[in-house]
Amino acid sequence: MGMKRKCAYCGELNADTVDHVIPRSLYPKSIGSSVQRLTVPCCEACNKSWSDNEAHFRAMLTLAGKANTVATELWTGKVARSFREADGKRRFLDVWANMKAVQTPTGERHKIYPASDPRFIRVLRKIVRGLHYHELGYPVPDEMAGADLLRYEVPEEITEAMTRYHFGRDVFEYQFETFDQFPDIPMRSGWLLTFFGNKRFAGWIWKE
Known about the structure:
two-stranded antiparallel sheet; 5-stranded antiparallel β-sheet; globular
């Protein structure tokens, strides 16, 4: 009988599945199995709890900002097909609810702001928690994690000193730093996340 593993998210000793920290749905058909996937042990309850949100996360992410070839392939492939499925109307309306009208020199356009969507941020926090477990070896609860759009430019001398890790460079890349050695800093770890080459977010794990 094998040793029970702790879930990377809730810490319970019933991790009988694995979770893809970077959702599998972010990898288009052209990439296929050519990229190493990052997985962590996960209980079934946690794994199921964000499966619907991950499809919403993918749609929101592909629409936000400037699209690279991967985001375009996802939008015209997996995302478009998801809108034609049985629950496709609901999925489309969930995305449309996040579209905001903005005035541009060429007239009115619609933009999407994923960081204002709670379901999007929940998946982003889940990715930060999974990365924290992968790198540092212990789970953290959702309330100890935070995530947001990267709203300020990080000085180049800081980012250049941080190792870059990627799981498909055109899909996902991350950098991180730990702060346990600095008692005055309330964060345990800080994360820079880049999706599709140009969509940048920040994540953090608080100290207890």
